[in-house]
From TrEMBL:
It is found in: Secreted. This is S8 family serine peptidase. Residues 176-405 form the Peptidase S8/S53 domain. Keywords: Hydrolase, Protease, Secreted, Serine protease. It holds the Pfam family Peptidase_S8.
Length: 469
């Protein structure tokens, strides 16, 4: 099938040319004014360890770079135009007593060179001296949060909120983990998606062909949230950088679909090996046919994640989110407040970012959308991270890790008595989820890093969906 027209390629090229990407440099070295600067070390600064035999001559009090008590050191400091020098640990311990030996580190000097000095040359000069045990750069260390080089990263408030950078140090998913996006299709030509989309097995049940190209935009946006290419110097980052995307088109160009097509989509995704199915869609009534499809997928180990709905009700959710075998996801804003449009009832599993979410759009573009549709793929992406780290886990265990590692949120609107109970001697309201797990718990916001730290998960209890309205 001819999937890429010349016109589409030209349009995408023109749109990308108009996008004002900031220029980012992510190598360990950068060029500034013709000078190579190493980002891994402090410029113009070295650590020099003095040999023990020379220490009695070294003046430690009010140390001067040119009157150190060691003539060779004074000469080197003058030649290198050293600006300052001090003892690394000082002569006293924290309690005012004379410092005891600590690994010989009391003999290390922190030497500040003249600006623009050749660091390697200076290190060579120091190392060649008889009185020097060793000389080395003052290396720089960073917290091991993985921050990608995607140009629009700074606009993606949701990923730092769920601690995705810390989570990526533990797992970035796996190409063997497939997240099926059952939606309006996916723009598989998008530069942030084309390397992630399984175009060989995509499916369109609306037009009844094998080309799940998006003609609406919703599915492309959802796919980008879950698993856009990350650290590729393009656009945005996805929650699960190494997971694959399976587009299954079950909603038409107006965003509508039916039970029969949705059931076909679920069946197809299961057949193709999807471990996660994202359903950023919903309706008012359940369907026994759809319920049976959900039950069948669940029993085959698939985790289905669905948006709770955007009508703002706090006592009811859309279907299939309210299915007892579906992970239901509501929305919070960047201040960890439940959005006014987000639906929930006593069976809501968790909340995730869903307000003003930047992600991929049609024709290679990017756009911000709001809704529980945007919250669900954040959870789908984290499910992919979990399976990337723990491939043998059951869907009930992944579900448990998602739900019971959440962060506190502020709920919007009234909380009815059938939803909460007051813990004795506590000021915290907690929600009870009788249809999924027989325990009391806090309703909270997704935290990817916390979910990945679970080592021995429990399992949620998910009785069959009987289509009870």
């Amino acid at each position: 099938m001819f999937r890429r027209s010349l016109i589409t390629a030209v349009v995408i090229t023109l749109l990308l040319a108009l996008i004002p990407y900031p220029v980012l440099v992510h190598a360990s070295q950068v060029t500034t004014g013709g000078v190579r600067v190493n980002r891994d070390v402090v410029p113009d600064e070295v650590l020099v360890a003095i040999k023990p035999g020379y220490m009695p001559y070294l003046r430690l009090n009010e140390l001067s770079a040119f009157a150190t008590g060691i003539s060779g050191l004074d000469r080197v400091n003058r030649n290198l135009q050293v600006r300052s020098m001090q003892s690394l640990l000082g002569s006293e311990s924290g309690n005012g007593a004379k410092r005891r030996e600590f690994g010989g580190l009391e003999r290390v000097l922190v030497i500040k060179l003249a600006p623009g000095s050749d660091l390697e040359e200076a290190l060579g000069v120091f190392q060649a001296q008889d009185f020097v045990e060793y000389a080395e750069p003052n290396h720089i260390y960073q917290a091991l949060d993985y921050y990608p080089n995607d140009p629009y990263w700074s606009y993606q408030w949701a990923l730092p909120k769920i601690e995705a950078p810390k989570a990526w140090e533990l797992s970035r998913g796996s190409p063997s983990v497939i997240i099926a996006i059952l939606d309006t299709g996916v723009d598989y030509n998008h530069p942030d998606l084309k390397a992630k989309v399984l175009t060989g097995i995509d499916k369109d049940f609306v037009n009844n062909d094998n080309d799940a190209m998006d003609d609406h935009g919703h599915g492309t946006h959802v796919a980008g949230i879950a698993a856009a290419a990350t650290n590729n110097s393009k656009g945005v980052a996805g929650v699960c950088p190494e997971c694959k995307i399976l587009p299954v088109k079950i909603l038409d160009k107006w965003g509508g679909g039916t039970d029969d097509i949705l059931v076909k989509g679920i069946d197809y995704a299961v057949q193709q090996g999807a471990q996660v199915i994202n359903l950023s869609l919903g309706g008012n009534n359940c369907s026994k046919t759809l319920a049976n499809a959900i039950n069948a997928a669940f029993e085959q180990g698939v985790l289905i994640i669905a948006a709770s709905g955007n009508d703002g009700y706090k006592t009811s959710m859309a279907y299939p989110a309210r299915s007892p075998r579906v992970v239901s996801v509501g929305a919070v804003n960047q201040y960890d407040m439940e959005t006014d449009f987000s639906q929930r009832d006593e069976t809501l599993d968790l909340l995730a970012p869903g307000d003003n979410i930047l992600s991929t759009g049609l024709w290679g573009g990017y756009m911000s959308l709001t809704g529980t549709s945007m919250a669900a793929p954040h959870v789908a992406g984290v499910a992919g991270l979990i399976w990337g780290r723990y491939p043998s886990w059951k869907n009930t265990e992944v579900w448990w890790a998602l739900r019971y590692t959440t962060d506190p949120v502020t709920l919007n609107g009234n909380i009815t008595l059938n939803e909460v109970t007051m813990i004795p001697n506590s000021s915290q309201w907690q929600l009870y989820l009788p249809f999924v797990a027989n325990r009391w718990r806090l309703l909270g916001r997704l935290n990817a890093y916390s979910a990945l730290q679970v080592i021995t998960p429990e399992q949620v209890e998910a009785p069959p969906d009987m289509c009870a309205n």
